[in-house]
User: What shape does this take?
Amino acid sequence: MSLLPPVTRATADVDRVPVREKIGLGLGKVVADGTHGTLHVLVNPIYNMTLGLNPALISTIVFIQRLWDGMLDPVWGSFSDNFRSRWGRRRPLLAIAILPLALLFAALWFFPRGASSDGLFWHLLLVSLAFYTAHSLYSMPLGGLMLEATDDYHERTRLASVTFAFGFAFQIASQWLFPLTQLAVFGDSITGLRWVAGGCGLVFLLTGLAPLWLCRERHYGRVAARQPRTSLFASLRMVRDNRTFLSLLSARFVLSLGYNLVGMLGIYMNAYFVFGGDLKAAGWAYGFLGSSFHVAAILSSLFVYPWLTRRHGKKRTLQIAIGVLLTGCASKLFVYQPGLPWLQFIVLITNGAANAGFSLVANAMLGDIADFDEWRTGLRREALFTSLLSWFEKAGNSLGSLIAGFVLVWIGFNAKLGAQPPETLRLMQLAYFAMPTAGALFALWLIRRYDLTEARAYEIKDALAGRRAAALLSPT
Assistant: This one.
């Protein structure tokens, strides 16, 4: 089938997502991003800086847990696409996953007091694997629900901007969780940690229920419920021929790898380069700094990237976000100065805006890719595409996190010393600059192959609308 000449048009009223549904999806995003993000924020300050667990062991655990999470994503994504029930294929799975997800998040921080390094290692590893099993079962149907909420090119960007803003908003609060565990009212940091973790678990349980009541499954009755079930391996064979999608996957992997190779070093640079090993002072400062990361992410998500995609398209906007990351990387060579913590705002703000761009635009692209896939194959597989993007992101994340702990060991970091030697700090700063810079440059080269423009997306949308109308009139 040949496509029609390019067209550009405004979003139709029927394609606009109601505010109620945006709030429901946004609260679901709080759970999907907030649980994982809070674990990322707390794991090193608690298990390494407070309890003294070797950072290489933590990196090994993070690698295993994220690899496990990434491996499960396509399984649960395909399962959700093929699931059939009187309530749909997404919301029943959200209902099943949310309670164990909230409980297992809290259990991550209820390790035995006085546990040995081996005990801490096995507790974090085993509970993490169970936690990420529930996390994947919740996140993949939620991603599918987001993709099928609208068929419009620009409304997909607006929806992504709102839902990601919800996720980033919670993560502003997550930056303050470690300082909260240190409050004197708790008596000791472990007691504080458990009160804070329990409160977070309750918040995740309540917000995770919101999509069940506020959202609908737009494509279930008119397309998905009528299509044949497709195995995961058959779906993967079809997807591998989608060059546009593969260019997005490879760019997302490289960005994630480069960023996460040294992502944890932001906390260490603040604590040891700027504050000389004073963890309490560094923790409160990083609460403000980390909040600036997510404030920049929220503002750019709501106001900057929707405008850029409207004016320049999604591919060019993703390239602009990568350029913002490169600017932040260059600033790392200058802004970290002992006794001048607020210069770090430059790095945190640019990183926040750049990461919002990667996440928001890539997820907005997925809806267009799912339409293209339906146009080619006749199948709606939103959760599969969500899961594959998640898998490549987490593969880069897990590999980078594995190497990151060994980078700390290689540069000579030792938490027991407090203040670190000058040579260790210099190597830490160099690694923090070089690795994400290399990843960003490579991603710019990879994304050049993405060719699903606004005009082509609308052509495919029209073709699908005609095909679905014909299918409804067909006696079969």
Notes: The CA atoms of residues 180 and 229 lie 48 Å apart.
